[in-house]
Amino acid sequence: MPKTPPQLQTGADAGGPELSISPEKVCFVIIKAREFDAKAAVTDPDSGSNPADDMGTAVLEDHSDDPVVEELSSFIDSLSEDEQIDLVALAWLGRNDATAADWPAVREEAAGAHNERTARYLLGIPILGDVLEEGLSMLGHSCEDYEIGRL
Fold it and tell me: pLDDT tens for residues 83-118?
């Protein structure tokens, strides 16, 4: 019988503000962003070799057609506008630009800045996974249960 992953607390249950995006979705973005952040610079852009010849190092390099980037961009683009706004606001909060008490103002600012380039903007933030995790933590949420249930 398959295990049901543990559910994270949301909104008032966790003692923080109600989010439009579920903590599970944020945790998914965090995990994928860390996969993307772990990529190294491309050392041989057109090797033409068999992956076995270069010991599979191309998988660890940041190519323009990176499947992690494509998956993450597609996921972020599929979120509702409110979810995208929350994601940007969580990143801003996690950069230590504000405190949890400032959440309404940070979210309002993110709503004013929202456009169709949310995924590209977020993927341009260095250590995106870390800043999202910090922002989520500041609002009383954690990915710990989610990661344990999924890994």
Answer: 999 999 999 999 987 899 999 999 999 999 999 999
Between residues 142 and 1, the one the model is more confident about: 142
Let me know if 140 is exposed, middle or buried by CB neighbors in 10 A (0-12, 13-18, 19+).
Answer: middle
Q: How far apart are alpha carbons 123 and 145 in whole angstroms? A: 25
Is residue 125 domain-resident?
A: yes
Q: How many domains does the chain have?
A: 1
* Contact between 83 and 21 (Cβ < 8 Å): yes
Q: How far apart are the first and last CA of the chain?
A: 17
Q: Is residue 43 part of a domain?
A: no
Domain-located, residue 29: yes
Residue 134 falls within a domain, yes or no?
yes
Q: How confident is the model at residue 148 (pLDDT cuts 50, 70, 90)?
A: low
- Domain range for residue 111? 20-37+64-150
